[in-house]
Write a structure and sequence with these properties.
By secondary structure, this protein is of the alpha/beta class. The protein contains four helices and eleven strands; from the N terminus they run E-H-E-H-E-E-E-E-E-H-E-H-E-E-E. It is globular.
């Protein structure tokens, strides 16, 4: 799907998960199947006009949960999993977790201690936060249901650290952007709920003031 998107040029391309296909409906078989797709994605990103490509896993990306060694094979992508990177003074942090969702990858019990522990790892000075799932109540309504699929504990942590930008995906029907206080929230799903790549990538500038 990424190859079908109209990607702009820029310094940093951020991929918020769900990049790899599933075929078998079995996590272990799909993890094996995704290994070749991940190599193709890495090669594709190496041909793009970006200085850096950052990737977190999504709930469809079984290979990162079941075959953890594959991340060492990436040559053109920086994979973040409860980890961060600083680029030109901008501090990025990435995490793949979300409250339990249809038995997919990187699920953790809603409002449980595992999610609270994952969000506690996010540094207080994070500028750009990348999570697969959204915070509760912000661009997080699936299928026009009116229900909120986002994480309550993530929202609490975001309010504490107030990043400049919070980027996520997961809920395809809530693509868009919303500013709340000091934070710009971006649901960056390229695909709609029919998995067609119809949404344009978000383009933003993140400037760090010189003190």
């Amino acid at each position: 799907m990424l190859s079908r998107a109209a990607l702009p040029t820029g310094d940093v391309l951020i991929l918020g998960g769900d990049l790899l296909p599933n075929r078998f409906g079995d996590p272990e078989l799909d993890a094996i199947f995704q290994m070749d797709s991940l190599r193709d994605l890495d090669s594709f990103c190496g041909r793009l006009d970006f200085k850096h490509v950052l990737l977190i896993a999504g709930n469809h990306d079984w290979v990162f949960e079941r075959k953890r060694q594959v991340r060492r094979l990436l040559k053109n992508i920086t994979y973040l999993e409860d980890s961060g990177i600083e680029i030109d003074g901008v501090k990025f942090w990435g995490s793949p977790h979300q409250p339990w969702f249809f038995d997919w990858a990187f699920n953790l019990p809603r409002n449980g201690p595992e999610l609270e522990r994952a969000w506690s790892l996010i540094p207080d000075d994070t500028d750009v936060l990348i999570t697969h799932g959204p915070p509760h109540g912000i661009l997080d309504q699936p299928f026009g249901s009116g229900e909120h699929a986002g994480c309550e504990l993530l929202l609490k942590r975001v309010k504490e650290i107030r990043p400049r930008v919070h980027i996520f995906g997961h809920i395809h029907g809530s693509y868009g952007r919303q500013r709340v206080g000091e934070t710009l929230f971006l649901n960056a799903c390229l695909c709609n709920e029919a998995y067609e790549p119809v949404n344009p990538p978000h383009v933003i500038d993140v400037d760090i003031p010189v003190l």
